[in-house]
Amino acid sequence: MIEVVLNDRLGKKVKVKCNEDDTVGDLKKLVAAQTGTRAEKIRIQKWYNIYKNHITLKDYEIHDGMGLELYYN
Fold first, then answer.
1. 25-45 pLDDT per residue, tens
2. Please, which domain of life does this record's source organism belong to (predicted)?
3. Rounded Cα–Cα distance for residues 52 and 19 (Å)
4. pTM
5. Positive or negative CA dihedral for 72, 30, 14, 20?
6. Residue 1 contacts residue 58 (beta carbons within 8 Å)
7. Helix extents (H) in the chain
8. What is the rounded distance in angstroms from the CA atom of residue 31 to the CA atom of residue 6?
9. Please, which pLDDT band fits residue 9 given cuts at 50, 70 and 90?
């Protein structure tokens, strides 16, 4: 289990516990459950890399305690 911190830059930080072999789509569903927004309206990225839904967190080398950017479409 790893913990990922997502910051929406509007004053909200979301901490989500997930597995490294979860996909980005699974992470979006966990974030959606905590924030109350729909998972398809969430975009997760780091700098200019927008993460695709079907790729795992391990493939993106997302580790425990890593911070990601959270945007609402």
1. 999 999 999 999 998 999 999
2. Eukaryota
3. 17
4. 0.89
5. negative
6. no
7. 24-35
8. 9
9. confident
